[in-house]
Design goal:
Blueprint (H helix, E strand, L loop, with lengths): L1 H6 L3 H31 L5 E8 L2 H10 L6 H7 L4 E7 L2 H12 L5 E7 L12 E10 L4 E12 H14 L9 H30 L8
This protein binds ligand 0O2.
Protein name: GTP pyrophosphokinase family protein
InterPro entries: GTP_Pyrophosphokinase, NT_sf, RelA_SpoT
Organism: Catonella massiliensis
Length: about 220
Amino acid sequence: KIIELLRENTLPAERFFANYRCAIMEVETKFKVLNEEFSLMYDGNPIETIKSRIKSNESILRKVIRRELPFDLDALEENLDDIAGVRVICSFVDDIYKLADCFMRQDDITLIKMKDYIKNPKPSGYRSLHLIVAVPIFLENEKKSVKVEVQLRTIAMDFWASLEHKLRYNKKIAPEMLAELSRELSECATESAELDFRMQNVKNTFLGKSLPRRA
Ligand code: 0O2
């Protein structure tokens, strides 16, 4: 029933997704502005790329069933934090924390939840900083607060997450090999994190800490 509801081109469903698309635009713009500002203040841009997505109907449905949520749009809005997702891919680990800090200090951003999978990686090896925030969008006659999940990660963390996702969900992998695959992937994540740490040190050693440029 929920999938029919989401596929319908009726006004409530259209409005439901439009609000999330607007919230994504707001958050993307905030990070683009910070990228510009940081490149003026320090040498170089901290953001490599920004990728955004609206959660697919199938993925929404899977979550609704897994969490036994009620089948209506208000319940989805209330219970799902990641219908709108913005992924900010950074060059260095310290860029992630600097950007997150500036973003969260903006007075129209409300932090709902922060999950630091960089300091506390998942058992899979997954690393990223997740921020669930509420951002206002300004519509014709109202201002609405919309939730967005922001995932901040380095190029290395993104590389690992994207390949891990491809490998883990590959149907050709024999079930008896899954435990070994998990171990391998977790080791790759550790090596990848060591490389991030080393690149950060290289930057600090050869470019110094990111001190503001003189005017
Ligand atoms: P998609 O396609 O991005 O929508 P839940 O969201 O219910 O699973 P929780 O605790 O609310 O659980 O979310 P969590 O684990 O903090 O963050 C979920 C998202 O983080 C995932 O989204 C992935 O994008 C990413 N993620 C978390 N763990 C892993 C992992 O081990 N490997 C990879 N590659 N990504 C991970 P979705 O909903 O799974 O998918």
